[in-house]
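Morning run. Coffee first, then this:
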Amino acid sequence: MDIKDLSRCLLFSGLSPDELEQLLSSVQTQERIFEKGDIIAMQDEVCNRLIILTKGSVTAEMNAPSGKVIKVEDIFAPQTPAVLFLFGNKNKFPVQIMARENTETLIVYKDSILKMLSLNQKLLKNYLDISANYASVLAEKLYIMSFRTIRQKLAMYILKLAADKSVAKLDKSQDALAEYFGVSRPSLSRELKNMQDDGLISANRRQIQVLDREKLLRLIRFE
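And here it is:
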């Protein structure tokens, strides 16, 4: 494990390599290597450890009651999946975490994380910031998913990106956006074309021009 690489992780932001090395030496950690396709954590398994990706990447998937597997996101080193779920009375992994390539990890168990957080205020603030940001992103996604149609989801997403401007630049590819919405890529592409045909937007690759803001707003107001 390269401490300099690990220090790029948001959790350790502001800590020098020496500070980080000293902090990690004060607790028990475990380095583990997973091959492509290996399950790193099961959905609904007790989240009793922090998994820090040091090399490689993982896929987070959710198994629906219907048996359908829904891809949630890809997570790349040096990130920490499921930070938000380490504490609490129902601290379980909400998704299955699987290596999407050969992946190296640093495993730090809950008691060690508590000790590290008590020893370093920078680390404590980073942990709280990451948890708060993750909760905000999760709340936003839940809000978008509350809309029933792809058109409503797109309207909400485009208006958020555009803010008070007339042009929005998509921050995800169509494949990634389809995964984010939980729909198929062809369905997403078809709805983008339909919205253009209806004069709501004009799309040029990732650049979306808002042509009728009021109609887009009515879509998400359920009017």
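The chain has two domains: 3-144, 147-220. Good start to the day.
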